[in-house]
Structures are given as C-alpha cells and as structure tokens.
C-alpha cells in the first residue's frame, strides 16, 4: 500500500486432498481470503509456489490461470452475483456453455435442492435460494476445487444451514475438494480439517474425527 509493505500471508504451507472439506477460520484481515484467491488463481503470490496436480500455476502466465479457473475451480462468494434478468436455470447455463464437460443446469440446481425453482428470477428467490443458485453455477462445470468465501455470511442461521447442507452434499456426492472461509467457529465442525488463521499464518490445524450435521450446530 504505497510505501508500506503488507504481508497478507507469511510462510503458509498447505496441502488439499481430493474430496477434502477444509474450513479456513479466523478474524477479518488474517489472510483467509488472500489464500483462497491464490488457490483459485485470482491472485499470484509474490513468493513461493502453488501446485495443482504437480503443475506450478505461477508458470505460464495469465493464459494458464484463465484455463485453470475455467476448467478446475468453482467460486462461491458471500454475495451471490447472479444476473437479475436471467432465471436460475439461465444463470447456471452461463457457466455450462463454456465448460468442457458440464452437467445440465437442471441437474446442478436439483443437487442443491432447487429442482422446482428452475425458472424463477433472482428477485423471486430468497437469499438462501440465491446462494444455492450460486453454488449450482459453481459446480455445474464439475470443478475439481470448490472455493467458498463466507457463503453463509449474509444469511440467518436457518438459511445458512440449508446452504451448508448444499455444500456438504456437493462435497460428498461429487467428491469435490472444498475450501470454505468463515469467521463463525461453529461452522468448523462440519469439516474434515480446520485451519485457524492469525496475522497471515496458519496458527493451528485441527482434524475432526467426524463431521457434524449442520442441523446439529449451535448457531
């Protein structure tokens, strides 16, 4: 920032495994979103390496990153980023039209519990339903990696449960490696691993022996 160097991440060393569900937990400014953006190819680190299936994403420039994002990564953000003039089906179809081996939009929406809302516009959907459309859009191209940045942050607890259930179903049924950012420690219990962030570092790693059902969380 001008003449001031900001170390968003400091010596982070992390492996994600196929089918893994990892929660990145920590306060604002701890480096979670920066790491997620690097994993997703939106940002490039100033030092170190980012390997996807033994290929270094820092090699090959923006062209390789574009291909990596298009073919391998699905993004879900706190705000849904749906196009208001398109139906749920059409919002998902935007992705399937450019993907190599997509699932039909109807299948993706059914997977997140919206099979009966295919032709509704965003304004006709609740916040939780819009977020589930965003999840369907992210998974419709069958990504290897699903990255979720505060997907329940703008939702009440009951709606957040539905969104978490949709993410867990995708992870379990499709085997999609999933990384989810949150500042809500309760959500961490649904994951295989929990990475606690502080000052740009992973300060603690916890492995959950069993995942908890979102309905059982004390929100």
Protein architecture, described:
With 219 residues, the protein is an alpha/beta fold. It has a domain at 21-86 and 144-216: P-loop containing nucleotide triphosphate hydrolases (Rossmann fold). Helices cover 31% and strands 17% of the residues. It contains 6 helices and 8 strands. The chain has helices spanning 32-39, 61-72, 88-96, 105-111, 127-139, 157-174, and strands at residues 21-25, 51-52, 55-56, 73-76, 145-149, 177-182, 193-198, 201-207. It has a 6-stranded mixed sheet, with helices on both faces. Helix 3 (88-96) packs parallel to helix 5, helix 4 packs across helix 5 and helix 5 (127-139) packs parallel to helix 6. The protein is globular and about 50 Å long. The termini are far apart.
**What's the β-strand tally?**
8
Please report which band the strand proportion falls in: under 5%, 5-15%, 15-25%, 25-35%, 35-45% or over 45%: 15-25%
Helix and strand content put the structural class at alpha/beta
Low-confidence stretches: none
- Helical region count? 6
**Whole-Å distance between the termini?**
37 Å
> Share of helix among residues?
25-40%
CATH architecture of the domain at 21-86 and 144-216: 3-Layer(aba) Sandwich
Could you say which overall geometry the principal axes of the C-alpha atoms support?
Answer: globular
The H-level CATH homologous superfamily of the domain at 21-86 and 144-216, spelled out, is P-loop containing nucleotide triphosphate hydrolases
Just give the CATH class of the domain at 21-86 and 144-216.
Alpha Beta
CATH topology of the domain at 21-86 and 144-216: Rossmann fold
State the order of secondary-structure elements, H for helix, E for strand: EHEEHEHHHEHEEE
Mean pLDDT: 90
What is the gyration radius calculated from CA atoms? 17 Å
Major β-sheet, in short? Answer: 6 strands, mixed
Major beta sheet, strand line-up: 4-5-6-1-7-8
